[in-house]
Design a protein that fits this description.
The chain has 119 residues and is mostly helical. The protein is built from four helices and no strands. It is flat and about 110 Å long. The relative contact order is 0.03.
Length: 119
């Protein structure tokens, strides 16, 4: 009896459908696995970038806690000076703008000039 079942077309169709179903699920699983691996690589890159930025910020913070950096920031941001220092402000010269009398005309101005004789 088992041999008749094995040789029947219905049994063969069921086995083929089951194999196709399992193959599709295996393909989806493998594809999802590759996508997750790519995401892991991207996230590790982001983590490394954030670690690098954190190290830069910590180094900048350590540098800003020195006396020289505090003085420099106070002078540049707050316009403070140490006792006995003189502040010199350099103002750039104003350059006079040259106004051109022959300004470029727009499209409609040029058209109007062409037909000026009609007026």
């Amino acid at each position: 009896m088992w041999e008749k079942i094995q040789q029947s077309t219905v049994f063969s169709i069921i086995i083929v459908i089951l194999a196709v179903f399992l193959g599709i699920n295996a393909y989806r699983t493998v594809r999802q696995s590759f996508a997750l691996q790519e995401e892991v690589v991207r996230e590790r890159g982001k983590i490394e970038e954030l670690r690098r930025k954190k190290a830069e910020i910590e180094a900048n913070l350590a540098e800003l806690q020195t006396k020289g950096a505090i003085e420099r920031e106070a002078k540049s941001r707050l316009n403070l000076k140490l006792p006995g220092e003189e502040v010199v402000v350099v103002v750039p010269e104003k350059k006079e703008e040259v106004v051109s009398t022959s300004s470029p005309r727009g499209f409609w101005e040029r058209i109007r000039q062409r037909f000026k004789f009609l007026q």
